[in-house]
Specification:
This protein has about 325 residues and is an alpha/beta fold. Helices cover about 35% and strands about 15% of the residues.
Length: about 325
Amino acid sequence: MRVLVTGGAGFTGSHYVRGLLSGPGAGGGNGRRSGQLPQSVRVTVLDTASSAAGGERVASLMRDPACSFVQGDVRDAALLAEILPGHDQVVDFTAGTSGGRSGDPAPASVDTRLYAARTLLEAAVRARVSRFVRVSGAEVYGDTRTELWPEDGPLLPGTPHAAATAAGDLLALDCHRTHDLPVVIARGPDAYGAGQSPDAYVPRVLSHLLRGSRVPAEEVRGDPREWLHVTDLCAGVRVAADRGRVGEAYHVGGGTVLTDAQLTARLLDACGAGWDMVSHRPAARAGRRRPALDDGRLRALGHSPRVPLDEGLRATARWYADRPPWRQPARAA
């Protein structure tokens, strides 16, 4: 089995590759229930790896002889035509999950993302890959007071970033209907864990706490959203990739829905700190919320998350405490 992982030098993509290289059931998911990939799996990572973090992730992955790395852009049709043939699966992490990043990309970035999705899908059609897995995110559903969002729920993106992600999902499903490309969509919530870029929410808060500075008040004003440990997210994506029904979307859910203030409280506990380490303790408020994901389809396939939130946050805090350079903004991406 040969798998091409685009965006494999990113936070979530690199965790996914490690799970593949470790054999069935790896990645902190559900033991041997999580996957059916053979031990002889070989992985090709395609990524620009333009950041310090991406370069370090690639160097770590390349220690395994079953992994090869191609530095390049998924918008490069000629490169895709060269490397895609012979791969059985494409798992596309270029859409990404937010991880609680602030801000939204510029319109030019939205155009770039759409062109990248189309170019990769067209190349996969020409290469006749056996399965194309697009990893998407809960942001495509927008903000709602709905407690649990169904897997066949409407896409209601509320930002340019989310709209570009939703459009990429629809392009993938269109390729399934029009060109018989075996597409599966896997949508996850915000992820956290070891090796995440320092511009994401959890590392941002941890960087303040671990250097003994107070967390800025603006960091604890976000609305509720679902959080899932990255190894559980990757385990769920593997189940969808291996056993999901083509043409369907699968939610990798089962996480914990928290406001930023609630998550910060858990991070304070993980670091043995109190609210005096936050510039301003926020009052409870009513606002928008990103829906939790109904993950019934994956649960029917035997998948459920295994990393409790507090356990995952403590492990993440220890990882960053041991690696001060990973708390520097220069490593972002």
